Amino acid sequence: MTQKESDSLKIAVISEISRDPAFAAECHGTDSFSSLLGIYVNSDCTETAAARHWKSILDLREIMGEALGRPVSLHTAIADYCTQSARLLSSPFLVDAPVFRNTQQQAMIDPLTGTFNRRYMDISLRKEYHRCERWGKSLSLCIIDIDNFKRINDTMGHPFGDKVLVRLSEILRDTLRDEDVLCRFGGEEFLAILPETDEQGVRTLAGRLRTAVKQDPFLARHHVAFSAGLSSYPDIQTVDGLLAAADRALYQAKYNGKDQAVPATPERRKHDRFPYAWELSVVDEGTSEEVSGITTLNVSLGGAQFTCDSPYGVDRPLQLMFRNSGTGMPEINAEAHISWVKKLHRSFLYGVRFDESPNPLRQRLLNQAMTVERA
């Protein structure tokens, strides 16, 4: 199908849907064949396949009209095509559109806050991600977590905590755009899906949200604030990666003191991790304080993960010393910086990146891998 044929077909499809009172509003702003087909059929197909389906549906509608000697509705043509020709539906169930929408909405809405629930979030996020990926658009996420919410519930009671959740959700909805999707992500967590919003845009939006919360008399009177983690596509390339990066950024915001929004740092992994427990000493280059007796959780040519009791901030320069621990290998020294930190119950989990990958490290990793393989 040429581009001209594709454009003509899309105009014809949108024109037909626009005549359908039940679905006319849903085709406005929809710019892909797959999205237009999704208005009627719960089927995930490529743009090329969706265009082919639409052409066949319109052709079939014309054939059915000529055979029956009367106009055939778009619904009828779609139902016949999807059950008899393309087999997109195996056992369809007829229900009036308003009834279906009402049932669908109830299944997708959080009853307390009126925001979308986690189920809808999963559907909407993947749909929006595929749209942005297909058309080269940006996409951002903002995970919002109310600070000290447990203390609010413990001191003021759960009914009051519910009022806080409801009021915060109202402010978030009022501040977001119509095309943004706000979901209740967890107990006191919300997730905003922000189509066509880049890294700078989500930072600006997070600032507006924080300002709106601080200016609300009810929330300000009770000192309610939130922390947020931000992530953006295409800086991060997968749906799961976007969620994980925003979650890490949220932990960082909490660690930094709460009441702030922190953008994610894309984790561009170039090296495989190896789950090796190596003895490690860490020297803080700012204070020259040394902490020994640390054991790594994993190691790669690009960095390492470990836990310790000492608090270090992100980008803190460290000197790492990997001890031989009976391996017969010499001690390995490496200059590194903290990439991320997560507060645990009584310690901190760190991810560090080497400024330069030490040459002896490659040989040590190789030797360890060979030892494991022989075992």
Task: Report the C-alpha radius of gyration, rounded.
Answer: 27 Å
Count of individual helical segments = 12
Question: What is the CATH superfamily of the largest domain?
Answer: Reverse transcriptase/Diguanylate cyclase domain
CATH topology of the largest domain: Alpha-Beta Plaits
Instruction: List how many beta strands DSSP finds.
Output: 11
Q: What ranges have pLDDT less than 50 throughout 5 or more consecutive residues?
A: none
CATH structural class of the largest domain: Alpha Beta
Q: Largest beta sheet, briefly?
A: 6 strands, antiparallel, barrel
Structural class: alpha+beta
**Principal-axis shape:** globular
Strand order across the largest sheet: 6-7-8-11-10-9
Percent of residues in β-strands: 15-25%
Tell me the count of domains.
Answer: 3
* Helical coverage, percent range: 40-55%
**Proper CATH architecture of the largest domain:** 2-Layer Sandwich
What keywords describe this structure?
single chain, 375 residues, alpha+beta, Alpha-Beta Plaits, Thrombin, subunit H, 3 domains, 6-stranded antiparallel beta barrel, 5-stranded mixed beta sheet, 45% helix
